[in-house]
Design brief:
Low-confidence stretches: 417-421
Number of domains: 3
Helix content: 10-25%
Largest sheet: 22 strands, parallel
Strand content: 35-45%
Radius of gyration: 37 Å
Distance between the termini: 86 Å
Mean pLDDT: 84
Number of helices: 2
Number of strands: 41
Length: 432
């Protein structure tokens, strides 16, 4: 009995030990499982949150792309727009800030918020990098005329009688010529003759010229350049003017007193005289000549902010003798009041380019102000103490103390309607 009891006790002890071992193993296993499940659950939750966050971001991207497309393509849009894609919604807000469009799009998926913001700026219509830019007809300077700024020409640059250019001078191409010019900057031309160069000179041939800096004989000819505004861009501005309606009678259109015009096409000559004051609300296309005289004033509506407004003279059926602009007797030009705003006068007269003798733009007798002159196919003639901010033409003549005083603000101009689309994207980024 004693031996049997002892065997039973030993067997029981072994069974208890085994049970304890199994329980201990189970406890350890459960501890391991529970301990490892936490990170797994956390990782799964993090992955779900990441998916929702990305979905929110892509929704905000889709929202801002939709609104930006509407703005750039001139489609209809409201100050607040909502876009839903696969049950995900993006809310976009459009604000006007300093003449630009700022769009903020917010995506919200299960309270995971992501925001994207972009700024769209009005289309840049032109870039004037030179005080004077000239096509193949070249530049002629005489009688104390001056340019405060750089000069670029696809043709010759000729001067006489105390002219001065306060900037660099470039006559491009294999026939490039600078002759009789006094420049405070550097000179670039195939041939330089009878000139005074304040800084460096780059040339193939030189004679009768003093060089204040370093001479670089054997320099490569400078490449010719396109004019800053294409005919296609001018056609877009004319179309904008035409969209505002057409004046057909009485003709010529003679302003009396103070009037506001634009956008508008005037189907005949435009005359401003005496104390006439014209306020431009948009681009104007004159199918004829434009004549300013006797202290007439042309200004841009202040509500247009930094915008430049275009006044085009272009009679499409007679570009050889019509489409001329004549400014005289203290005509004055004003922008909106912003330093970035100018009146841009354009003549499409092509007499000079086709071998004729008619002048596209003639400015005399103290005409001045916030005015830019452009005649890509014709001649600009400046004389008698006038002052303008920039001039570009097929050919330019500066006489009798006429001056071009370049302002850096005209390197990039904004127009009431930008060529080739109204807006371009300036920046695009996620925000807090």
């Amino acid at each position: 009995m004693t031996k049997s009891n002892n065997r039973w006790r030993k067997s029981s002890s072994k069974g208890a030990a085994l049970l304890i071992a199994v329980l201990f193993f189970l406890i350890i296993s459960l501890t391991i499982v529970i301990g490892s499940s936490g990170p797994v659950i956390a990782d799964r939750k993090a992955a779900q949150n990441l998916i929702k966050s990305k979905a929110s971001y892509f929704a905000s991207e889709a929202g801002i792309e939709d609104v930006s497309y509407r703005i750039i393509k001139s489609k209809n849009y409201d100050s607040a727009e909502n876009l839903t894609l696969n049950d995900y919604t993006a809310s976009s807000v459009i604000a006007d800030v300093d003449g630009n469009k700022e769009v903020t799009s917010t995506g919200n998926v299960s309270n995971h918020i992501r925001k994207v913001k972009t700024k769209l700026i009005p289309g840049i219509g032109a870039s004037f990098y030179y005080g004077v830019q000239v096509g193949g007809g070249g530049l002629v300077m005489s009688n104390s005329s001056r340019v405060d700024g750089n000069v670029f020409s696809n043709g010759p640059i000729n001067g006489s009688n105390s002219n001065i250019i306060n900037g660099d001078v470039i006559s491009a191409g294999s026939s490039g010529l600078i002759s009789g010019i006094h420049t405070a900057g550097s000179a670039y031309a195939h041939t330089i003759t009878s000139s005074t160069v304040g800084e460096d000179a780059y040339y193939q041939a030189i004679s009768g010229t003093s060089v204040g800096g370093i001479s670089y004989p054997g320099s490569a000819d400078q490449s010719t350049a396109l004019m800053p505004i294409s005919d296609a861009q001018i056609e877009e501005w004319k179309a904008e003017a035409l969209a505002g309606g057409t004046h057909t009678s009485p003709c010529p259109y003679s302003v009396s007193g103070a009037v506001s015009i634009g956008p508008k096409k005037i189907n005949c000559d435009l005359n401003l005289d005496g104390s006439d004051v014209v306020t431009l609300n948009g681009n104007v296309w004159v199918s004829g000549n434009i004549n300013f005289s006797n202290s007439a004033i042309l200004k841009i509506n202040p509500s247009l902010g930094d915008k430049t407004v275009v006044l085009v003279a272009d009679k499409e059926t007679n570009r050889s003798s019509s489409g001329q602009i004549n400014l005289s007797n203290s005509s004055q030009f004003f922008g909106t009041g912003s330093a970035k705003s100018y009146v841009l006068l354009i003549s499409q007269n092509n007499s000079a380019e086709t071998g004729g003798g008619n002048t596209a733009i003639n400015v005399a007798n103290s005409a001045n102000g916030k005015v830019l002159l452009y005649a890509p196919h014709g001649t600009i003639n400046l004389s008698n103490s006038i002052s303008v901010k920039e001039a570009s033409a097929y050919k330019i003549q500066l006489n009798n103390s006429a001056s071009v005083l370049y302002e850096t603000g005209i390197a990039n101009l904004l127009f009431t309607s930008g060529p080739s689309g109204g807006y371009s994207i300036d920046n695009w980024q996620e925000i807090e």
